[in-house]
Amino acid sequence: KFECVTCTAPVNIAVIKYWGKKDESLILPTNPSLSVTLGQDELRAKTSVAVSESFKEDRIWLNGREESIESPRIQNVLKEIRRRAHKRSADSKGESKLFQHVHIVSENNFPTAAGLASSAAGYACLVYSLAKLFAVQGEISDIARQGSGSACRSIYGGFVKWKMGEREDGTDSYAVQVAPESHWPEMRALILVVSDQKKLVGSTEGMQTSIATSELMKHRINLVPKWTDEIIEAIKQKDFTTFAKITMRESNQLHAVCLDTYPPIMYLNDTSKLIIRLVHCINDILGVEKVAYTFDAGPNACLYLLEEDVPRVLHLVKHFFLPAQSNGQPSFVTGIPVPE
Ligand code: DP6
Known about the structure:
Blueprint: E1 2-10, E2 12-16, E3 21-23, E4 28-29, E5 33-37, E6 44-52, E7 59-62, E8 65-67, H1 72-89, E9 101-108, H2 118-133, H3 141-145, E10 159-162, E11 175-179, E12 187-193, H4 203-213, H5 216-237, H6 240-260, H7 270-286, E13 291-295, E14 301-306, H8 310-326, E15 332-337
Parallel strand pairs: 7-9
Antiparallel strand pairs: 1-6, 2-5, 3-4, 5-10, 6-9, 7-8, 10-11, 12-14, 12-15, 13-14
Bound molecules: ligand DP6.
Keywords: ATP-binding, Cholesterol biosynthesis, Cholesterol metabolism, Lipid biosynthesis, Lipid metabolism, Lyase, Nucleotide-binding, Steroid biosynthesis, Steroid metabolism, Sterol biosynthesis, Sterol metabolism
Protein name: Diphosphomevalonate decarboxylase
EC number: 4.1.1.33
C-alpha cells in the first residue's frame, strides 16, 4: 500500500523583516515580522510526501537531487509531525502509517537560495503536505517555523504576521493572517531578479552574526514592534503611502544593520542600489509614494505597488534595466500578482 499527498506553497516576501533569533534550535525570533504571501501560481514550492510499507528509510529529494534526511531542521519537522499525529491517534488503536517511512520530493519553480525565500515556501509546503498525510489538525505554522523561521508565514495567504511570542517553549510563536488576499486585491508585487546566484552569506548565519556584533540591532529590536503595528493599521486602512514608507524604511534599516555587522554583510549590489534610486525618482515625480522596494538577504528587489501603477512602473524598469541584460548583465523582470 502506498499513500501520497502533493501540495504547493507560495513564497512570502516580508515588509517587516525577521532578522535575529533568541533561540536557535526552536527558531524563536527577536522581533515580530509581517509579509505578503504571493499568488499560488507564481514563485512556489511543490512537494509530494508518500508513505509505504515497502520504504526502508526516510528519504528526501530536493530539485531532483537526493539530500541528507539527517538535517536537524528536517528532523525537527518530521519528529514534531509524528508526535502530533501519534497523540491524535493514541485513543484509537494507532495508525500503521505512523510507523512507516516517508519519502519526500520537493521542487521550486525559481532559483534556490538566491534570496527568494525558497526555504520559506519549501518548509511551509513540506509541513502542510505532511500534516495532510498524517491527518494532523490545528495550528501547523509553528511546525513550519522550526524548519525555517520565515516559512511559518507561507502557511497562510494574504497579509501575515509572525507573532514573536514570549514563552520559552515557543508555543506562542506562530503566524496569523492579518488580512486575506481579497482585502486589498489591487496589491501587486514585482520581483526584479538581479542575480540568481547563491548568496554569499545565508540568512541563518547572517542574522547570527548581526545579533552577536551589531549595536544598531539593539535599536532595531525596540523599533520593529511599533512599525509592525503601524503597517498593520495601514493594511487595514488600505493606506498605500504609509505601507510603502514603512516597507522601504524597514528594508533600508535591515541592510544598515547588515552593514553594521562585523564583518559587514552587503547583500545589495550596484543594480539593487539603482533600483532604490529609480523607485525614489518615480515617487518624487509622482509626488507621493506609489512604489515600494524591499530586499531580503540578497540583491533581488521586490517592488510592491497597486495594479493601476504596474504598466508605467514596469515600462520604466524595463527602460532602465532590460538593455543591460543584452550586455551580459543579469536583470529581468517578472510580474507577480498578489493575490492570484
Ligand atoms: C531576510 O527564515 O531563511 O528573508 O529561520 O534561519 O531559516 P532561518 O532564516 P530565514 O530568514 C529570512 C530572513 C529574511 C527576512 C524575512 O523573510 O522575514
